[in-house]
Each structure stands twice: as C-alpha cells, then as structure tokens.
Structure to design on (257 residues):
C-alpha cells in the first residue's frame, strides 16, 4: 500500500509540474494560433430565399448554396468565455500530465532499472516519440477549420500508432531477442504502412502557413511537456525504484537487458 501511495504521489507531482509548464507555454504558442484559426471557422448561414417573380424560380434554384465561411471576422468571446477556456485547457493538461506520469512511473518501476532526473529525461524522450512524434507523421496536429476524416477513425489510428511506437521504443531499449525487436518495429510501422485516415479533399479554410506553424508549435510544446514529465518522474521515482530492487515481482522480465 505504501508503494502504491508513493507511486501515485510521484505521478501527481510530476503530472502537475509538466501540465502547468505546458499550459503556460501553450498560452504563448498554440493558443493564439487556435484563436486565429477560429476566425476561419465562422459560418454564415445561407441567405433566406427572396420572393422571386413568377417564372424566375428555375433560375433562382441554380444559385442556391450552403453555408459560407467568412474570413477575418473572428469569433466573439467575452472575458468569462476566455477565462473558462483557459481553465479548461489547464485542467486538461493537468489530467493528461497525471495520467501519463502514472504510466511512465509504472513503467520505470516494472523495468527495475536505476532512474534519476537525467535517466528520466530519456524516458520522457521515449514518451514523446511514442505519443507525439511518431503519430504526427500520419496525423499532424490539426487546427479548427481544417479538413479531417471521421473523428473515430482518427482516434483509432492514433491509438494504434502510439501503442505500436511505444512497443517499438520499449523493445529497442530493453529487449535482447531479435524476433521481439523485429515484431515491435513491425507493430510501430504497421499503422503508417496502412495509412492514416484523411478526407477525400484536403481543402480547408485555414491558411497552410498557419497550420504548419501550429504543427511545429504543438510538437515543441509536447517535447517540453515530456521532458519535464520524464525528468520529474525519474527524480521522484529514484528512491522508490532503489527500494524495490530486491523485490522479485518487480524485476525486469527475462529477455530484458
């Protein structure tokens, strides 16, 4: 029970630190880009049909059209709405940080290897590759207003890509058996070989330069998040892992280096 309590405490502290840092950085990097992209997401409803003169109905039907996106109008927000969005962003980052910290801390504990802040940084790099970098080769971070395939398909592909990349990184780091390594690398490559779901038409209202800037800013923010998360987890877990070195149940499994 004490082990679980300390594990959760370490994950909570590391998650809060990394989530807070990411929230601060996002307010200066990705959030302004999202707000700018939302200007291109404003949709004007189709104009009400005018009373046409007899005999002009046929010609009027050929000019009917759907909603039209307006560029540059912006999204009206009040101060309360802005504060609510900031609060939701911070809460989401904190929850995400704690969840990933739990996974990373549990992995450190099960690996049974020495950890500290420096080694934790390496663990964080592995997490960044698995969760952010590798999936971005198929599905790059998207802004509001960008064209995309169905959300469920994108989520499923992202989960498979992240899980495969995580298995590949773990196998390259710890496995000795070449078949295990080959299988893990294949699992990491398979989602990309199948291909990520994309819309039939890539047309979107957001300018490509804005989308490209958002991709680099998102990956940079994610790299900082994982660096802090890994270093904090390594530092907080160092004593806990040393104490469990003698526990057979927590030692590395056969085949680990």
């Amino acid at each position: 029970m004490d082990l679980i309590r300390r594990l959760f405490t370490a994950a909570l502290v590391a998650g809060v630190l990394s989530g807070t840092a990411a929230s601060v950085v996002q307010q200066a990097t990705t959030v302004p880009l999202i707000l700018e992209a939302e200007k291109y997401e404003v949709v004007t409803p189709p104009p009400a049909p005018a009373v046409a003169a007899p005999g002009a109905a046929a010609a009027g039907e050929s000019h009917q059209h759907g909603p039209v996106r307006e560029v540059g109008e912006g999204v009206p927000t009040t101060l309360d709405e802005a504060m609510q969005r900031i609060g939701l962003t911070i809460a989401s980052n904190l929850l995400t940080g704690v969840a990933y910290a739990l996974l990373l801390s549990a992995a450190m504990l099960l690996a049974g290897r020495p950890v500290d802040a420096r080694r934790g940084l390496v663990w964080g790099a592995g997490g960044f590759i698995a969760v952010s970098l590798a999936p971005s080769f198929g599905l790059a971070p998207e802004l509001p207003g960008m064209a995309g395939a169905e959300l469920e398909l994108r989520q499923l592909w992202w989960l498979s890509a992240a899980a495969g990349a995580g298995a590949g990184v773990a196998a390259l780091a710890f496995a000795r058996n070449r078949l295990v390594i080959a299988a893990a690398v294949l699992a990491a490559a398979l989602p990309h070989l199948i291909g990520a779901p994309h819309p039939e038409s890539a047309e979107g209202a957001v300018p490509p330069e804005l989308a490209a800037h958002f991709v680099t800013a998102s990956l940079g923010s994610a790299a900082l998040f994982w660096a802090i998360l890994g270093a904090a987890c390594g530092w907080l877990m160092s004593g806990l892992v040393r104490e469990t070195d003698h526990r057979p149940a927590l030692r590395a499994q056969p085949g680990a280096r």
About this structure: The chain is about 65% helix and 0% strand. The beta strands are 43-44, 68-69. The longest strand covers residues 43-44.
